[in-house]
Design goal:
Rossmann fold; five-stranded parallel beta sheet; 5 strands; 35% helix; globular; SEFIR_dom; SEFIR domain-containing protein
Length: 179
Amino acid sequence: MTVTIPAPGRPTPVALSTAPNAGPDSFYACYFPENEWFKLQVASVVNFFRNNGYPVEMDVMNSCELSSGPTRWAEQQIRRARNVLIFLSPGLLRLSGVDEDDPETHQEHERVWYELALLKKIFLQTHSASKMVCIALPNTNIKPQELPLWAELIYKWPEDEQKIFKRLNDKPIIQPWKC
């Protein structure tokens, strides 16, 4: 059994687990594969969290488990995850605005479209984006007017690393109210 101890100054992980799909204290990474550079950046951040004791699941790190079908696997991961780390990008935002009745538009990236449809459904049912942790990587062109309601709170990587840790531990930073 290997347990990763977080570096000083980092919050204690919610669960230290050796099983890849360990119950309610697992996390899931949702992203649109913009290009190889973007996928590597997402994997790097996911590995950072994994190395600090946060079991984050990512499709390219679990290719063997995807045999049941990528959409079915993604749905299972999102439903069991405590939080979903959503890596914002122009492609992901474009897909998040696609009408569910337009299958041709989302056919190429069906898994990502399905993840976004499921997250939108969770948001509409709960009236809360508490399950979603939206992260913007450096050099990612995101236009505020394209953001869906569930993505209004965005963490910038790596500047907001500590805020993300607090969010993953259910200790969000409460912003002061501005008059």
